[in-house]
Amino acid sequence: MKRDYAVIGLGRFGGSICKELSAEGRQVLAIDSDEDRINEFKNIASHAVMADSTDEATLNELGIKNIDHVIVAIGDNIQASILTTVVLTDLDIKKITVKAQNDYHEKILNRIGAHQVVHPERDMGKRIAHNIISNNILDYLEVSDDHSIVEVKAGGKMRGHSLANLDVRANYGCNIVAIKRDKDINVSPAAEEVLREEDILIVIGADKDISRFEKHLV
Ligand code: ADP
């Protein structure tokens, strides 16, 4: 049977990916070396197998080569995560996503050919920190090492002003790229658009500029 994804390591992170993909109706091969984890996912994933993912022959037997996207979510055992990634790159898997535990781990994963390295704890920490700084910051997304997109409620200092009047681009070096109002989203707001209390703004810019914008206007 054709399976869309394989998730290796069914801890909190991998388990959550597996549950979500399965709930979306995707075919998921779930792999873990721990029997209890496999029992837990037997009725969730389309197929759950107890196996050691560092063993190339085992992965081959499981038909991993037919799977387009493999997610390696082995947490604390960094050695197993690296070895598994090497095996998957040797097998020429089309897309390999790996969870990194720390920056050093991330560097190695990039070097050995992981296509996508994710750092959920670090990224979520950043998002929550921005939300702690201001309750008006609803979400935060890093787009590069020094650029981000933030979703903010139009702060008191912005309400009643037009975009031209606020001139966020000239004053703070960042761009308001969209305004969410009720259920609508305006992705090319005009300069004369006047901000209202319930507006949510999507702003892109360099981190240092967004930080000034957050301090002064949000
Ligand atoms: P999280 O921090 O996301 O909860 P954990 O480290 O708790 O991650 O879980 C990682 C999972 O990966 C565990 O269920 C563990 O049994 C599994 N695992 C570790 N090494 C291997 C391996 N070599 N092959 C398959 N599964 C593994």
Question: How would you describe this protein?
Answer:
The longest helix is centred in the middle third of the chain and has 14 residues, at 120-133. A six-stranded parallel sheet has the order 3-2-1-4-5-6, with helices on both faces. It has a five-stranded antiparallel sheet with strand order 7-8-11-9-10. Helix content is 37%, strand content 26%. It has 218 residues and is of the alpha/beta class. The model has no long low-confidence stretch (mean pLDDT 93). The protein has two domains: 5-118, NAD(P)-binding Rossmann-like Domain (Rossmann fold), CATH 3.40.50; 123-217, 2-Layer Sandwich (Alpha-Beta Plaits). Strand 2, helix 2 (35-41) and strand 3 (47-50) form a beta-alpha-beta unit. The protein has nine helices and eleven strands. Bound molecules: adenosine-5'-diphosphate. Adenosine-5'-diphosphate is lined by residues 8-14, 31-34, 37, 52-54, 73-77, 80. Adenosine-5'-diphosphate binds at residues 8-14, 31-34, 37, 52-54, 73-77, 80.
